[in-house]
Amino acid sequence: MTHAAPGTRPSEARLRLLATATQIFYAEGIHSVGVERVISEAKVTRATFYRHFPGKEDLVLAYLREVHRMDREGIDAAIAANPAPADALLAIAGSIAHQIQSPGFRGCAFLNAAAEYPAGDHPVHQQIIAHRTWFQDTLHSLLAQVKQERSEAAAHHYVMLRDGAMAAGCLFDPALVSETFLDGIEGLVSTHSKR
Which residue, among 97, 122, 96, 112, has the nearest Cα to 31 in the 3D structure? Predict the structure, then answer.
């Protein structure tokens, strides 16, 4: 796959392909969307597609890296704006709740992809695990700053609450799901700080 040299911007066609794939894969699923559809909606030629992505799997991996980048930017911003670890944990939950209530919400892109790529040795599945490991580690670090004891268990609990909210948010009333999720995270952080 061609990548832009450090310090240079990726080509407009590559950005358009990735933006198109990101929108369609998230809205409709990965396996249900063919390369021809992405090429057509991105308004590029087949040759241009294959110059940037040797195959669909390369595009899927780029899509997941893009979603990871967006998630990481949001979480890094929440942490930067909230120097106290407990406040950062609540701010991250707030951004997740905001996402759940956003138009077109269809759950977690990584959980959705995991359902389509269940084989643990598949590169797409490994990309999903890498994202989840980063998220878990980020939460664990913040929770350990609140209180070291049982911080790993608390991070697992946080991730499970988040996963449940992401799944429920596209099935039930997103506002109610978000409220329930935020209550759960507030309780988790409060309980963790007192243990």
Answer: 112
